[in-house]
Structure formats: structure tokens, C-alpha cells
């Protein structure tokens, strides 16, 4: 991203019912979300996944564009989710993205409800997040007329409300989930006429855990994502685990014609480290200096069973 130089210029057991009313304004989401949404931290994409496991889970994520492009996009996120009891979960999702002179910050609080069904570990999960988003132009990075009225009007805007809703079904093997990250835009189609493209519109995913024996398992996963202004995206891949989920290797192919692969280690189920690399998409590979992005993740689990 460059600085501004002239400001003038169908699976079984799955039945999900969405029922929500909210007066929140939608925000702008990257077409390439943090890749931790697939396996390490599903709460990033779906509020229904907050407090899914016992105890408190703290996650930190950082991603930066690799290559020689100045002011390349950088994303940081911090989440905390806590299982208040067997049915109620709470979460906090903080994030910031910088793209050239643009900075977007968000803070979301989450309430989730986990409803046990009548057999085994089958559960339905419901989640709702609400919070604020703030978008600003960094005046220190502007090259040109910083007094331009366009910049002034943009930075005069106040933080706005945003909300998202999600649902999921889980059992010992199957996970099926879906979420709408921008409720108001989904309910009020007229907002689509004036809002920025590259906004996430919906997220759906299904995965199935398979035990291979001797502490080895594999979890294939398919994700279907909608992004305003682009064709729908499909992500498909798998997570391979070793030593009872203490080590993992994973890979995802994206219909944007790029791939993500990575590894992780969970030390005594308390401290987990993850590293991921995503190759550049077919469109981005045509740009000189664009190589892809590297993402790091850290998770700390407290007060959870071994």
C-alpha cells in the first residue's frame, strides 16, 4: 500500500436459525482474514465459539505483508474468551489494521450460550458480539495537503457501532458453524450503496475430526466466505495433529488461488505457538515486491483441565 500523495485525487444434525435485531453500522473487513480463524482461534470469525472450552483463553495474533512494498498492511488482534459455566461464555475481541495511511481499530464484547442436546457431547452454540469501530487517517503519514477538507471530514467522523451474530453445532467429531459479521448491513440492504467494498458479509464452515491412532488425528475443513464486491471464496484444507493435539501441521487452499500452511506446538496444553505463511494470490503476484504474508499466534490457556 502506498501513502496518499494527493488528497484531492449440508451436513447431518445441522439446523441453524438466525433471529436477531440490531442497530449497528457495518465496518470494512479484509478479503484475507487472519488465518488463525481456521483452527487456532475460531472465535475470531464466529462469536458462538467464545467460551467453548473450559477456562480462560488469551490469544495474540500478528500479521505483516512480506515484500518490499512500503506501508504494507499490518494486523494485530487480541482476544480473550472465558467459560463462565457449562452454558455461558464471555469474550473480548480487540483488533487493529493499518493499510498505508489508514488505521482501523475495533473493540467487541461477546456473549455466547452453549445449549447441550440430549445425546453425548452434542451442543448448539449461539453468540452475539457488539462494540465500536474507529477509522482514521494517520496525519503523520500523509504526503500532500494535510489540510484538505476530505481528510478533515473523514477524521471528524465518530466511532460507530458494529455487531455480529453466530451459531454452531458441535459433537465429538463434527463442527458446523456460520456467522454474519455485519448485522446492520445484512438487515438494511440500502447501506450497501454507500459503504466500502471488501467487507465480509457471511462466514460458514464445516469440519470433521478423525482419529488415526497413536495420538495422531486429522481434521478436514471447508469454509465458504462472502466478501462485498468480490466472488464468494472457498477455503479447503486440513489440520494434522500429533501427540494428542500437542503438535500440529496444517494447510488450506483458497479459491483466490493461493495457499496457507503452518505449524503449531501446545506446551502442556497451557502455551500454544503458531506460525503461518500465506502465498500471494494470483492477482497480487503480478505486483512487483509482493511475496505473501507471515502470521504469528500465541495462546495462553488458564484454569483449564489438563
**Backbone structural class:** mainly beta
Question: What is the molecular shape?
Answer: globular
Strands, count: 15
Radius of gyration: 20 Å
What would the average pLDDT be, to the nearest integer?
Answer: 81
Q: What are the secondary-structure elements, in order, as H or E? A: EEEEEHEEHEEEEEEEE
| Residue runs with pLDDT of under 50 for 5 or more positions | 1-30, 192-197
Tell me the major beta sheet.
14 strands, antiparallel, barrel
Q: End-to-end span in angstroms?
A: 45 Å
Beta content comes to over 45%
Tally of helical segments: 2
Strand order of the largest sheet: 1-2-3-4-5-6-7-8-10-11-12-13-14-15
Secondary structure: helix percent: under 10%
Notes on the protein architecture:
The chain is mostly beta strands and 306 residues long. Helices cover 4% and strands 51% of the residues. It contains two helices and 15 strands. It has helices spanning 149-156, 183-187; strands spanning 56-67, 74-83, 88-99, 102-116, 123-137, 160-170, 174-180, 200-208, 210-213, 216-227, 233-242, 247-254, 258-267, 271-279, 290-302. It has a 14-stranded antiparallel β-barrel. It starts with 55 loop residues before the first strand and ends with a strand.
Keywords:
single chain; 306 residues; mainly beta; 14-stranded antiparallel barrel; 2 helices; 15 strands; 4% helix; 51% strand; globular; disordered N terminus; PorP/SprF_Bacteroidetes; signal
